[in-house]
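Reviewer has doubts. Consider these tokens.
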Amino acid sequence: MRLLFGMAVRISKMFITVHDPDEALGFYRDALGLEVRQDVENNGFRWVTLGAVGQDVDVVLSPPHGGRSPAEGDALLALVTQGSMQAAIFSADDLEATFDKLVESGAEVLEEPTDQFWGVRDCAFRDPSGNLVRIAQA
């Protein structure tokens, strides 16, 4: 951890826009193995917070229209649906086993485990909302 002006700065939360939280849970919780930490609703919108066991970083599955104007929500939903958004890059101790589990779940494969020119071995999927998710060998 690097101190900036005497303050410690850490990653706390990241948001992934999804159109259906239940479908997204099938991918992030059931296939990737993240644990649900919070599941809340407000004004007809639902946010689900997940995280990897032993890590303090939260992944918040967020609705496109929650907290946004209708026009902003529509624009964000269009970007997500057409696959223009990268959601996250995860790492796995066993990339092959993680890949196989995601394939078995029915997740859309974009790239099988590959040694990349930038020095990592990873694979790529689309989550049920269309977000690009990469998983690298830890």
